[in-house]
Amino acid sequence: MSGPSHEAIVRRSFERQTALFEGPQSPFATRSGSQAWIDPLDAGMAVLDVACGAAHAAESVAGRVRVVLGVDLTRPLLQLGAARLRDAGITNVVLQEANAESLPFVDESFDVVFCRSSLHHFGDPPGAVREMVRVCRTGGRIVLLDIVPPSAEVRDRFDHVHRLIDPSHVRSFLEPELADLVPGGMAGLTYANTFSLRLPLEVALTEQSDRATVSALLRDEIDGSGPPTGFEPEEDDSTFTVAFVTCVVHGNKRPAA
């Protein structure tokens, strides 16, 4: 799934999610404190944030590098991020509207290229990663972080529930599949880690989400009448908390053969 039609789905979906990116309590803001997932960084680096949203991750690393460029398809999110950065006095982050599958940069432009929690929205994830590798300098680092299902057996239902929450979701990667995307694949990994965070389901829901169906599927899993969704739901007083399991992998761009 790729091309202009999927671009339109992504834009429309995220234009309807801007409230999730606003304010200090945004889940994207609260997740941006620790930078262990992208280290090491240094003050001379030029860094590219692919599918940057409202630039929360770009902001979190800006004080440790020379410059960060962020690209995203959704102009309202870029405008939201630009206003927040301006208010915070951050001047070394530049935001640009662009498609991750056709990055508007020449080869070997960046020391680190990263993509946080966005690959599952891409129509052509391998093509987007090839673009990330192209614009990364030889010896530089590609960092991919994304949600992962707990197993291949539950992935289809996991993806189904994610699409009910956000119709721009395409397909998730298993941990080995995510690793295979970076240069050198599993054998070329320089760092990998998987971690889980429990959050209220409400932080991911917007007016475009099919709340009733999602709630029914999670409740069926809890009472044993339905199959696992991969969300590991718990319910307390009609409020769901779910697990967001995330994997991060690093690989260095190798010299051309």
Rg for CA atoms: 18 Å
Low-confidence stretches: none
The third-level CATH topology is: Rossmann fold
Distance from N terminus to C terminus (CA atoms, Å) equals: 31 Å
Order of helices and strands: HHEHEHEEHEHHEHEE
Largest sheet: 8 strands, mixed
Which structural class is indicated by helix and strand composition?
alpha/beta
Number of beta-strand segments: 8
How would the global form be characterised?
globular
Share of helix among residues? Answer: 25-40%
Mean pLDDT: 92
Topology:
Blueprint: H1 4-15, H2 27-30, E1 46-50, H3 56-62, E2 67-72, H4 75-88, E3 93-97, E4 110-116, H5 125-135, E5 136-147, H6 155-165, H7 175-181, E6 189-200, H8 211-223, E7 234-236, E8 239-252
Parallel strand pairs: 1-2, 1-4, 2-3, 4-5
Antiparallel strand pairs: 5-8, 6-8, 7-8
Please give a structural write-up:
This protein is of the alpha/beta class and about 260 residues long. The chain has one domain: 3-Layer(aba) Sandwich (Rossmann fold), CATH 3.40.50.150. It has helices at about 5-15, 25-30, 55-60, 75-90, 125-135, 155-165, 175-180, 210-225, and strands at about 45-50, 65-70, 95, 110-115, 135-145, 190-200, 235, 240-250. Strands 1, 2, 3, 4, 5, 6, 7 and 8 form an eight-stranded mixed β-sheet that branches.
Compose a concise summary of this entry.
The chain has 257 residues and is α/β, with parallel strands linked by helices. The chain has eight helices and eight strands, in the order H-H-E-H-E-H-E-E-H-E-H-H-E-H-E-E.
Provide tags for this entry:
alpha/beta; Rossmann fold; 8-stranded mixed β-sheet; 25% strand; globular
